[in-house]
Amino acid sequence: MIEKILIIEDEKLNADRLKRLIKAVRPQVEILSTLESVAESVNWFNTNPNPDMVIMDIKLSDGLSFEIFEKIKIDCPIIF
Asked: For 34-43, what is the mean pLDDT?
């Protein structure tokens, strides 16, 4: 069951909309954090356990989200 979601999205309006939509459908879900960059995401994954799911934008403030996978392994479903 999906209980903890991480959002990786550099546009605040889009991130806020995703949070609202998720909470409207699954109010019990915990949004762990909203990250804006490749560097911030890599740091987060290096210091936190994997969430149950990641919702990720492709183009982030400092590069493409695919660069995250070159630096760390993510063991959960990802929605782009």
From this structure: 97
Q: Which amino acid is at 39?
A: A
Residues 64-74: tens digit of each pLDDT: 999 999 999 99
Q: Of 60, 39, 9, which is closest to residue 19 (Cα–Cα)?
A: 9
Backbone dihedral angles phi then psi of residue 55, each to the nearest 5 degrees: -110, 120
Q: Burial letters for 3-25: b for 16+ Cβ neighbours within 10 Å, e otherwise?
A: ebbbbbbbeeeebeebbeebeee
- Per DSSP, what are the bridge partners of residue 64? 59
CA angle 51, 32, 71 (to 5 degrees): 55
Give me 33's structure tokens.
Answer: 């954090």
